[in-house]
Amino acid sequence: MTSRAVTALLSLTALSAGCIVYEDPGPPAPGPGNYAPFVEWADAGCYWDGYYADHIWYFEADVTDPDGALDVVAVYADVYDSRGEWVDSFELFPTQDPVYWFSDWLGSSTWLDCGYRGYLVDIVAYDSFDAVDVLTITPAVAG
To answer: Which domains, and CATH codes, for the chain?
Structure first.
């Protein structure tokens, strides 16, 4: 047998063995990125309302997101006392302006005391992928 015939015979033998070769495509391409929301500004406080004969607690925030304002899905105000103990949480609601979130609550419906000056409020914003940003502020209180 010639060397050409041996090569052809070996090639046929390799093909008849059912050898399958797969190409490795490498790691998958990265998907679209997600950026965390950003609490640009926030305010909170308490004041007396004569109509309701009660204190009113208010929470407001401007929240942006590089992925678009509609990527922000939830904003909360978490209130802590001077010892760092959680006191109460409040949901803020979107307004006609997609960046501005707001809510207000009757003082009698909360665990908060409008005369207490030791509160800290964490304004927490979440986007659709659970990325988060927090801004801590001191609320303005009556008296």
So the answer is: 38-137 (2.60.40.10)
